[in-house]
Amino acid sequence: MTHAIRIHRTGGPEVLQWEAVELPPPATGEVRLRHHAVGLNFIDTYHRSGLYPLTLPSGLGMEGAGVGEAVGDGVAELKVGDRVAYTSGPLDAYAEARNIEARHLVPLPDDISFEQGAAMMLQGITAQYLLHATYPVKAGETILVHAAAGGVGSILVQWAKLLGATVIGTVGNDDKAQRARALGCDHVIVYSRENFPERVRALTGGEGVAVVYDSVGRDTFLDSVACLRRRGTMVSYGNATGPVAAFDCALLHKAGSVYVTRPGLPDYIASRAELVERAAALFEVVRGGQVKIEILQRYALKDAAQAHRDLEARKTTGSTVLLP
Length: 324
Ligand SMILES: NC(=O)c1ccc[n+]([C@@H]2O[C@H](COP(=O)([O-])OP(=O)(O)OC[C@H]3O[C@@H](n4cnc5c(N)ncnc54)[C@H](OP(=O)(O)O)[C@@H]3O)[C@@H](O)[C@H]2O)c1
Prior knowledge:
Layout lengths: L1 E6 L9 E5 L8 E10 L2 H8 L8 E2 L4 E8 L11 E4 L10 E5 L4 E2 L6 H21 L7 E4 L5 H12 L3 E6 L2 H10 L3 E4 L5 H8 L5 E6 L6 H5 L2 E9 L13 H5 L4 E3 L10 H16 L7 E6 L3 H9 L6 E5 L1
Parallel strand pairs: 9-10, 9-12, 10-11, 12-13, 13-14, 15-16
Antiparallel strand pairs: 1-2, 1-4, 3-5, 3-7, 3-16, 5-6, 6-8
Helix pairs in contact: 2-3, 2-8
The chain binds NADP nicotinamide-adenine-dinucleotide phosphate.
């Protein structure tokens, strides 16, 4: 037996239940993992609320780090006692222990803690693919990052600075503005009270930015498109305020022949080779100290409901882990 957070219906944080669950021996190709830390991500709230539909009842959580406790047949590359982290596979990360196919696991370097591993696999690999594959940011370009003090946002800002970009960040309040500046933002806009497209035009001499990384969704989409330079790229990668509404394609022409993409992590780590390559790139900048993974909230795993409340109330900054 182990304990896990499960949901039997979708809804608010109150649907998260701490339950005793059966954990069979790992099947062929699987590893039983004892979690030392579990990552909290905004997508967990979409799964819980029903925005991203699941078959119920279901576990929750996409990211964790821990130690292999048992290995099934056919697992050659991992052994009992190995430190590993992951961000793919079935949604069972909110658990003290779980079984998971070995192909999802990445060995965790000794100088990266379990908490860091759990906090950065999903958010960090997302930042990696957004900056290097979705729209490869080049030195000297000016870019806009929404929710710059948040989980993915904090990593995007630091990594974009490393690539030589000028970074404009938006944040919801003044405390977050301070944090965004400390992370390296060249300019910070408090978009809860400032008109961000006007500020972006002013900051770029009227030209607009090469790319907008927008995780806020419904409330910012059109204004974000209005921040782009001619043939700029709108990367709509999240829905913190709800899904983006349908829009007239002619808008992209009027905005300067701009591009729009709506990427998702699974399509950028679809093969084992891609997962390993992106994780290695992330480990390199974290171990080198160029990108810091700041864990600014910790909750007991069984208190995941409170973590969800705080995340949705915009009370968190940086990364958050749940501790079994
Ligand atoms: N497509 C992908 O591959 C992918 C992968 C990972 C994450 N994501 C997306 O990236 C986003 C960030 O994820 P995260 O886990 O790092 O969360 P986070 O950024 O730490 O938290 C969300 C932030 O969004 C901002 N926000 C603006 N309006 C909000 C509202 N009405 N309710 C809640 N938050 C609001 C808040 O920052 P301010 O107060 O500063 O506005 C809040 O802190 C999410 O949309 C997530 O779905 C997408």
